[in-house]
Task: structure prediction
Amino acid sequence: MTLVWRPGILYDADALAYMELVKAADAAAGQTGGLEPGVVDAINDFVVGCKTDGIWDAIKASCILAGARTLNGALIPLAGTAPTNVNFVSGDYNRKTGLKGDGTTKYLNSNRNNNADPQNNCHLAIYKNDSDVESNPYWIGSASSGFSVINGIGRNGAYSNSNGSIVNTNSSAGLHGVSRSDGASAVLKRPSLSALSSSLNSTTPPTVANFIYTINGNGTPFAGNWSAARLAFYSIGESLDLAALDTRVSALITAIGAAIP
Result:
């Protein structure tokens, strides 16, 4: 872990580099105030905490969809490649609570293919900042041709490079994630529930990018499964401890909300 001094405070170099990019994106969009000290501390604490927990390196594509002063700033990647914004506008973004989908036309393309991570060493996670009950949304994921194999998280279950699911209906606010570390099972994490491991044999993963607020159905959004949720974070990458990620992300989003007037 590389730490960098700034007046009176020791910041992690990765956290600092991210925040400087966010500040530049906000300034380019006309917001020059910078991030509040409490937001800066929250982001730094998150990165340092993930490194302490040993989960930082597993996060390969991620955005904190809160904290930044503008939507452009919120789409600066914490890790990996920046997502492509499809139809979101500044009015959809709230600095304290995240980015709101519309359930019909708005989504993010993570620009990280599902098969960029090993078939049996992968995770997907989102932080949902509302508890609205939607009929059958996907919050993140991708699918192969004909939807014979899905890797994704939705209200009605979690899929991990499989043609079956871990069923645990829960649309509560908090972290929703799925992680696979072997070919025979996967772990699901829902808000206020312990991680649930279930038999779930894996097959060859989809070769398209993971979408957020819907699922990538062989190159296009999967009709009928869009989400209007307000999301404040997403992560894609290798297998990790979902309980540890939950603790870190929950603290991050709570601290950001408290730090912004």
